[in-house]
């Protein structure tokens, strides 16, 4: 997946994996059957689970001993800078494209959604027209994938809202 352009099969697997990350989080092994190996499961096992980014059946950032920890650190630094004001998601792509990371677009297309999903309760996402996007969905992540420059991010970790609190407010 560390390529500039991904094959149609890998793009399809990416979409299915993002669907599974959003809809099956909480299930062991993200709900994948142990006897089947579709491409999205292979990517989940070799990239996400192997790097410790699915612990206790939740999407999370890698721990310090992971080779991906520097990416997580840079992502967190970007998010924290968004606590002062909204920043464009295209800036995050530029950070990961530049040294020392030099990530190709294919890997960023997996990494950035993982970062957003792991921190979804700490961020506010906005369309460039000012419209607030209340939650991450497959459609929103697909639109971000196609045009990251159309989206702004705000980080609210100083006062994080727990999922249970959010649900109690909505009831």
What number is the mean pLDDT? 90
Query: Strand count, sense and closure of the main sheet?
Result: 4 strands, antiparallel
Helix content: 40-55%
Poorly predicted ranges:
none
Radius of gyration: 16 Å
Q: Which of globular, elongated, flat, extended, rod-shaped describes the shape?
A: globular
Please trace the helix and strand order, writing H or E for each element.
Answer: HHEEHEHHEEHEH
* Number of H/I helices: 7
Question: Order of strands across the biggest sheet?
Answer: 3-6-4-5
Strand element count: 6
Oligomer: single chain
Structural class: alpha+beta
How far is the first residue's CA from the last residue's CA? 41 Å
Q: Which strand-content bin applies to the residues?
A: 5-15%
Molecular structure report:
The structure is a single chain. The protein has 171 residues and is α+β, with helices and mostly antiparallel strands. It has helices at 8-23, 39-49, 69-81, 89-97, 105-118, 138-146, 163-170, and strands spanning 54-55, 58-59, 87-88, 123-127, 132-133, 151-155. The strands form 2 sheets. The chain has a 4-stranded antiparallel beta sheet with strand order 3-6-4-5. A two-stranded antiparallel sheet has the order 1-2. The model has no long low-confidence stretch (mean pLDDT 90).
């Amino acid at each position: 997946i560390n390529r500039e352009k991904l094959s149609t099969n890998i793009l399809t697997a990416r979409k299915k994996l993002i669907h599974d990350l959003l809809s099956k989080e909480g299930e062991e092994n993200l709900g994948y059957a142990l006897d089947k190996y579709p491409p999205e499961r292979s990517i989940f096992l070799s990239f996400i689970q192997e790097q410790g980014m699915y612990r206790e059946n939740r999407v999370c950032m890698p721990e310090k001993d992971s080779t991906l920890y520097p990416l997580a650190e840079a992502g967190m630094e970007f998010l924290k800078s968004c606590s002062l004001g909204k920043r464009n998601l295209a800036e995050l792509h530029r950070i990961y494209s530049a040294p020392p990371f030099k990530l190709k677009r294919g890997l960023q297309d997996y990494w950035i959604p993982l970062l957003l999903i792991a921190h979804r309760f700490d961020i506010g996402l906005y369309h460039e027209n000012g419209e607030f996007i209340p939650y991450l969905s497959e459609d929103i992540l697909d639109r971000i994938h196609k045009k990251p420059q159309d989206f702004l991010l705000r980080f609210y970790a100083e006062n994080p809202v727990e999922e249970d609190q959010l649900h109690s407010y909505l009831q």
